[in-house]
Write a structure and sequence with these properties.
alpha/beta; 6-stranded parallel sheet; 6 helices; globular
C-alpha cells in the first residue's frame, strides 16, 4: 500500500505554499500531481518543479495513470498527492487509490459558486463530490497552511 501522507485539492496545484510549507510539514519526499492537463504540459511542470525543495521529487500523472500505478510506489516514498478538483479526488478514490484524508486548500471563485472559506468556493458539482467522498469515509478539512487551524467544517455547506 502506498504511503500517501495527505491529499490536497488546490486549483493552482503546486505553488510556493504547497511546495515548501506542506512538503516540509509532512516530511514528504515525493509529490504526485494527479491532473490530466498538467501530465502533458511541460511548461506547467517546469513551473511546479521550481518551487519544491531539492529533497523532494515530483511526478506528473493523469488521473487514470495515478490509479493504475500508485500501488507500485516504494515504501520509501512518502507521498503528498495533489489534485486540482474535488471531482478528480473522487475519481481517484473510486479508482481504488487509498486516500484517507483530503486537505482542501484553494478552489477559486467562478460564476454560480458560493464562498465557504477565505479561499474555497464551491458549486453543485463540488458539493456532490464532497458528499460522495464523505460517504466513502474520507476525512475532509479546509486549511490553507499547516500552521493554521481548520478553517471551516465543510459538512455544514453540503
Amino acid at each position: 500500500m502506498p504511503d500517501i501522507m495527505l491529499t490536497r485539492i488546490d486549483n493552482r496545484l503546486v505553488h510556493g505554499q504547497v511546495g515548501v510549507t506542506w512538503v516540509n510539514h509532512l516530511r514528504a519526499n515525493l509529490i504526485v500531481v494527479a491532473n490530466d492537463a498538467a501530465a502533458s504540459d511541460p511548461v506547467q511542470q517546469n513551473l511546479m518543479e521550481m518551487v519544491i525543495p531539492t529533497t523532494c521529487g515530483i511526478r506528473f500523472f493523469s488521473i487514470q495513470k495515478t490509479i493504475d500505478i500508485i500501488d507500485k510506489a516504494s515504501p520509501k516514498q512518502h507521498i503528498f498527492l495533489v489534485v486540482r478538483t474535488p471531482e478528480d479526488a473522487l475519481r481517484l478514490v473510486e479508482g481504488g487509490v487509498p486516500i484517507k484524508k483530503i486537505n482542501i486548500g484553494n478552489l477559486h471563485f467562478s460564476e454560480g459558486k458560493t464562498q465557504i472559506s477565505s479561499t474555497v468556493f464551491i458549486g453543485d458539482s463540488e458539493r456532490d463530490a464532497f458528499r460522495k467522498l464523505l460517504e466513502k469515509g474520507v476525512e475532509l478539512e479546509i486549511r490553507r497552511v499547516p500552521t493554521e487551524g481548520v478553517e471551516a467544517d465543510i459538512r455544514k455547506f453540503l
